[in-house]
Amino acid sequence: MFESAELGHALSKGEYKRVEPGLRADLLDAQYALSQDGRFPVIVLISGVRGAGKGETVNLLNAWMDPRHIFTSAFDKPTDEERERPEMWRYWRALPPKGKIGMLFGSWYTAPIIDRVFKRTKPLELARSIDEINRFEKMLADDGALILKFWFHLSKKRQKKRLKAIAADPDTRWKITKRDWDFFKLYDRFYAVSEEALRETSTAWAPWIVVEGSDPEYRAVTVGRALLEAMRKRVAAPPERRAKKSDAPPLVRPVDKLHILDTLDLSQSLPREKYRKALARQQRALALLTRHPKFAKRTVVAVFEGMDAAGKGGAIRRITAALDARLYRVIPIAAPSDEARAQPYLWRFWRDLPRAGRFGVYDRSWYGRVLVERVEGFAEEADWMRAYAEINDFEEQLARHGAVVIKYWLQISKAEQHRRFKQREKTRHKQFKITPEDWRNREKWNAYQVAAADMIERTSTAQAPWVLVESNDKYWARIKVLETLVEALAARLKG
Amino acid sequence: MFESAELGHALSKGEYKRVEPGLRADLLDAQYALSQDGRFPVIVLISGVRGAGKGETVNLLNAWMDPRHIFTSAFDKPTDEERERPEMWRYWRALPPKGKIGMLFGSWYTAPIIDRVFKRTKPLELARSIDEINRFEKMLADDGALILKFWFHLSKKRQKKRLKAIAADPDTRWKITKRDWDFFKLYDRFYAVSEEALRETSTAWAPWIVVEGSDPEYRAVTVGRALLEAMRKRVAAPPERRAKKSDAPPLVRPVDKLHILDTLDLSQSLPREKYRKALARQQRALALLTRHPKFAKRTVVAVFEGMDAAGKGGAIRRITAALDARLYRVIPIAAPSDEARAQPYLWRFWRDLPRAGRFGVYDRSWYGRVLVERVEGFAEEADWMRAYAEINDFEEQLARHGAVVIKYWLQISKAEQHRRFKQREKTRHKQFKITPEDWRNREKWNAYQVAAADMIERTSTAQAPWVLVESNDKYWARIKVLETLVEALAARLKG
Q1: What's the whole-number mean pLDDT along residues B210-233?
Q2: Mutate to test the interface with B, among A29, A65, A66 (most CBs of B within 10 A)
Q3: CA-CA distance, A319 to A93, in Å (whole number)?
């Protein structure tokens, strides 16, 4: 992939002077058009070898364009808040909103490549990282992002020359440290690992653009033009997303129309006395687990989904009652804010992820994408269809970072829902829980049940299982929730 | 202040059982009314001595009410991201949006009191903290927040008994550490310092409510009722803010109508060649300063304000051109997002404060409150009048934390603005910079000039000075900006 970036590409100063003003004006225009369009972000990754002009190019692009609409992020050592979340958290934080350019100096490629160069990881780990990156970038692209990945390359000979030149100039000497020479010694390894990473992540939706970095004029104009053309093309002809059907084969309905939620025995119940004892026992067990020394390193992500009045709030309160209020946050999910709407739909969930040693208890969740957004038509088929895989990726990252991810579907019968709605209308402090919208949603009962069954089938994984909770009897439901939570947490703390 | 909380207040279990269900239902109702009203947040501080039931009460309130609409925050050791910002940053992050309850476990009182108890600070430092807290709470209250500050108290005898009881119970033993006994040894000192802090922060807008903490039923019902009544009262009769004029005396106009911006000599200019040399020299000096070892601990906050077309963008680009793109972020300030609108107006500026070792360059800023919001009537007089002091407090905190705060007002003549507008309309890649709104704003030239003069008079401080920049000549303006920035940064790094 690097051969053509070792040819000694260059642009004369005269030629540069001739093209620069026009390119600059065009870039500003394109940036303005992007901002006016407002439908997609531009994500520019700047990667490559030391001394190849990455910093200079970013500085130049900021100078050419309007820096107020460029979000430049550099990634140094993670902060402790970053270390308490999965690795991708810091990159999600740096994503530009729609209509803006995000310039990422260093990126999700840095750690996988460097770790492999220094043999801190095995080949298979690099392969897994590459796979995850491809999926992540696909998600961004599917969401509309224009992704430009620039790799600044120098041949071994040229890099050596360049590092020496920087070290010799009193103005730039400070830039070169022993670390740079240590890296240089590993040039061949770095070459091989990067080549592999680039080859396997040069996808249709986010191809790499390899730029020879030795000549400042050449690299500047190359990057500038590539960015310009990509922005122009995208603004002129945005992908036809809105009316797009999914390419995926349709979800298969069981021919006997039996689905998993039908198989639950909703008649299961628990007498009051047994409930009381079990509640005290489970709450105590849960409280004890939070004092386990390993708990401080864990995050618990507990998701509650279910039809209206299925008892989500009540089950959540039986969990939180066992916990010190310092240790949890209940996160109710409503319509996204305007900042969230300018980002991929998982963005707000990434943003608000709890720290280590905390419970994040979600009253509704990212599954809204494949439940309410699907049923009500707020999301296109193509968008909610891809959400299953995106959510699995998200939860896998959580689990791998040590989080305990557990998801509850609280199932009630349609008749039981009706009974509870009526009861809520009568009870003073429950009246606010029942709105005309609840009655409207009820009319779509079957559609929601089908969506829930699909969701469970496609997103119940070993690392983030769905627990189906028979909830016609509240006592039964609450104890089942607590028991399974205690079990899952205990397994992770003691395992 | 603590005498009446040493009387041995208690509520019988029977009485508790009688009142609890009604109180609980009422609190839920009130919480719902708060959420429906959506005009103000409720900020509940939970402070006091160890063993007095703070945690239990917070847990209980979360159990009584709907925990989905309560934001409980506890403040442990600051994270490194928090340490890179002024102390109040972490509290700003924890403020609840309008319509919600924020429960703060530990608060802005903790550090000032503890530091004084352990004599890490002097009496005057405590006094200054108290003053700052009062101003901060006043700002919150002026912004509409309902603030309830609970102090959980125990007499010395009762605290000792309580700690012993907790330590004796195998279920709670883990809660008591050596630190608790160390604290207990300082009971008298803690009593005296807290008493002073409470006395001096028990204001009309945020009075303390001291609660005797020995009897669980008593303290629960006391806190529950206080919260209930405060919420009810506020929802029923919100303060009449919207049509409110400021109580402050009107701004005094100089009787000769001469104001500071009139005194600038706008004819000052710099020939092109001199400009080029000075630009290179200053940019180099600025770049060198960022490599000063102390820079990594500093934040630079550079604010640009001025009439449209005054050259803010151009001046900013002459700064950023000198900097590594990793070191700065240009932050353009536009209308607030819906998340920001649910918070005090300084919230979003707190949220996006740059880390240490970074430049935050603001193209327009928090001064919008006393410029565009004042002139266009987006903010009430009472609100923008108080903003001067609030902004000074904000910048003082930045400066005290080590930030270099520098503010530029770029002044052009009305004729020069007209010339630039016309020119922009002609230049291809500048057309997007000129909109009908710019022409409309121009009609209010004089009102903006008066607002700017008031702003400069009231917010130019030693720690965060305004630099008035004669900007009819762009070369002159840019060099003045760079020179003063270099000077200010050098003084702080070398001082």
Answers
A1: 95
A2: A66
A3: 30
Confidence of residue B250 (pLDDT cuts 50, 70, 90): low
Model confidence over A171-185: pLDDT tens digits?
778 778 888 898 899
Q: Which residue has the tokens 């900042």?
A: A339
Mean pLDDT over the full length of chain A = 91
Q: Which of A149-153, A482-486, B62-66, B208-212 has the lowest mean pLDDT?
A: B62-66
What distance lies between CA A317 and its chain's CA centroid? 28
Confirm if A134 and A204 have CB atoms less than 8 A apart.
Answer: no
Residue with the two structure tokens 């840019």: B478
Nearest to A16 by CA among A217, A229, A225, A227: A217
Measured between CB atoms, does B203 come within 8 Å of chain A? no
Q: Tell me whether residues B68 and A330 touch, CB distance under 8 A.
A: yes
Q: Is the ipTM above a cut-off of 0.85?
A: no
Contact A495, A294 (CB under 8 A): no
Asked if residues B31 and B69 have their Cβ atoms less than 8 Å apart, the reply is yes
Residue A15's SS3 state is helix
Instruction: Provide φ and ψ at A417, rounded to 5°.
Output: -60, -45
According to DSSP H, which parts of A290-337 are helical? Answer: 312-320
Q: CB contacts < 8 Å between A and B, how many?
A: 117
User: What are the CA-CA distances from residue A286 to residues A279, A321, B254, B453 (Å)?
Assistant: 10, 10, 69, 61
**More reliable by pLDDT, B326 or A210:** A210
Residues of chain B contacting A71 with CB distance shorter than 8 Å? 329
Q: Is B81 on the interface with A (CB under 8 A)?
A: yes
Residues 6+ apart with CB under 8 A from A161: none
Which two tokens mark A425?
């209308």
- Is the CA virtual torsion A452, A453, A458, A464 positive or negative? positive
| H/E segment holding residue B72 | strand B70-74
Residue in A with minimal Cα distance to B285: A171
CA A340 – CA B338 distance, rounded (Å): 10
Of the candidates B360, B244, B354, the residue with the CA atom closest to the CA atom of residue B302: B360
Neighbours of B155 (CB within 10 A): 20
Question: Which chain B residues are Cβ-neighbours of A105 within 8 angstroms?
Answer: 325-326
DSSP SS3 for A298: coil
Give the Cα separation of B247 and A93 in Å (integer). Answer: 43
Of A28, A105, A432, the CB nearest to B32: A432
Maximum Cα–Cα distance for chain A, whole Å?
Answer: 89
Q: Tell me the pTM.
A: 0.86
From A11's Cα to the closest Cα of chain B, the distance in A is: 22
Looking at beta carbons, which residues of chain A come within 8 Å of B324?
Answer: 55, 59
Alpha carbon distance A397, A403 (integer Å): 9
Q: Distance from B462 to chain A by nearest Cα, in Å?
A: 28
Where helices occur in A145-295 by DSSP H, the ranges are: 156-168, 178-185, 187-201, 216-236, 272-289
Cα A320 from Cα A283, distance rounded (Å): 9
Nearest residue on chain B to A428, judged by CA atoms?
B25
How far apart CA A455 and CA A458 sit, in angstroms, is 5
Residue A74 bridge partners (DSSP): A105
- Strand ranges for A31-171 from DSSP E: 42-48, 70-74, 101-105, 146-153
A66 touches chain B (CB under 8 A): yes
